[in-house]
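Quick one, probably user error.
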């Protein structure tokens, strides 16, 4: 549990469901920066209103609604009313969602939720039950209600779309630049050096990168660093060492970007990865 000046965020995992992270939080002034997740983001709003930028627009999710963001889609998150918002979020991996879809007999392909805000009371009840079972450490109830919730959401609100991980749709210069950034956490090139490495000029690369990836190169690099930091924290490394290994200036720099993306500081995230933290 992380108490941040009246805002509370509880990030945790159920030991029998390691590929599904959970967050229960109340935020008032906290703002998620533009970021992505490798898996799905499914949030049940319990009180207040969350606003979030999504695919060029601003969405509003109120009490009882479910906010859904597909993998690798750039989005934000902030209070839509002065009193903030309270919600329960699950972050199932792509593999978890595809496995449940396969159990339902769905054909192979990329799963995508077509609407970012859903009104589905039955799915909302199952999501809340899953969260509570996860907090209580009830393995059978957690695994059952997770499947119930995701099965309903997939059946009613998801569709199959052609394509792979999106790499094929990227311009070659952007794809090559992205690969360079993944390999350059500790010593990234300047924009001028990056553009020269992929055979273009700085401004055309910047425009193309932002248009296709959704973030400028420096912001994308910070996302890659946060994902690398999460993996190292999962291995048990101390946050200060993680910061040094992932290219952040220091632990405070890591904490700032980590919290804007994940919602909790690295230490709270690491505690959740080690054991379930009951309220």
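Nope, works fine. Designed sequence:
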């Amino acid at each position: 549990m992380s108490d941040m000046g009246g805002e509370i965020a509880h990030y945790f995992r159920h030991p029998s469901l390691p590929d599904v992270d959970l967050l229960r939080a109340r935020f008032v002034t906290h703002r998620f920066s533009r970021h992505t997740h490798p898996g799905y983001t499914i949030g049940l709003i319990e009180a207040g209103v969350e606003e979030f930028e999504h695919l060029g627009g601003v969405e509003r999710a109120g009490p009882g609604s479910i906010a859904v963001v597909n993998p690798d889609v750039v989005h934000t998150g902030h209070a839509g009313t002065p009193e903030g918002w309270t919600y329960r979020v699950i972050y199932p991996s792509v593999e978890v969602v595809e496995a449940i879809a396969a159990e339902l007999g769905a054909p192979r392909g990329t799963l995508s939720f077509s609407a970012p805000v859903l009104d589905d009371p039955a799915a909302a009840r199952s999501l809340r039950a899953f969260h509570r079972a996860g907090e209580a450490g009830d393995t059978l109830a957690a695994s059952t209600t997770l499947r119930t919730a995701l099965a309903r959401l997939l059946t009613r609100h998801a569709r199959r779309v052609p394509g792979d991980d999106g790499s094929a749709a990227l311009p070659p210069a952007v794809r090559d630049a992205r690969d360079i950034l993944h390999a350059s956490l500790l010593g990234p090139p300047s924009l001028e050096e990056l553009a020269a490495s992929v055979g273009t000029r700085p401004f055309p690369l910047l425009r193309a990168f932002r248009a296709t990836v959704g973030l400028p190169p420096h912001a994308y690099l910070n996302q890659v660093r946060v994902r690398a930091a999460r993996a190292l924290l999962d291995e048990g490394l101390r946050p200060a060492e993680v910061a040094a290994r992932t290219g952040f200036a220091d632990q405070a720099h890591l904490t700032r970007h980590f919290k804007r993306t994940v919602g909790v500081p690295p230490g709270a995230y690491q505690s959740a990865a080690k054991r379930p933290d009951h309220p």
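The chain has a mean pLDDT of 91.
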